[in-house]
Amino acid sequence: DPKIIQKPKYLVAVTGSEKILICEQYLGHNAMYWYRQSAKKPLEFMFSYSYQKLMDNQTASSRFQPQSSKKNHLDLQITALKPDDSATYFCASSQDGANSDYTFGSGTRLLVI
Amino acid sequence: GQQVQQSPASLVLQEGENAELQCNFSTSLNSMQWFYQRPGGSLVSLFYNPSGTKHSGRLTSTTVIKERRSSLHISSSQTTDSGTYLCALATGGLSGKLTFGEGTQVTVIS
Q1: What chain B residue is nearest to A56 in terms of C-alpha separation?
Q2: Helix (H, G, I), strand (E, B) or coil at B25
């Protein structure tokens, strides 16, 4: 059974629209993260949450907003989508920040046209 | 400059050969991890290894803090080992942020 569920797996969106990427983890971890992987670029850190509190935000744009309704849930809302937002978005979790193993979800592949 | 550098960028192995992948970092080590990214894109954690040597099956990870490097050794490679190997350094203190290298793309041919 997948331990981190990301939905949807694939997403095609029109420029200017808004989408929400879903992430739920069933590992009992305290920290959750979002990373982005664009074509031919390394995985890039976006946000980290610990006990539902924002710990770090490395995105330059306020169009990206994480939402945590429950400890095991961290969604990513993206507004005013641009073609440059096309990437695979990975959700991850760990028990104790970067001092413990990370587990990644399988990703949401977003294409903005 | 780039905090995490991986080498080589790509590698082709004949099945059964061994390989050593390198990860060098320019900042002090807090902790580091190795991941395997499948051709389809999903990531699998291989090692959390802030220091010393760890083994898992045919894989061995060695981190030498004072030399700011970590290596991943693959022994007796198999075609199923093909994919991208990523190292990541904890660079964000309490944030839990990992900074990833660009990866080593490994192709094992039979």
Answers
A1: B95
A2: strand
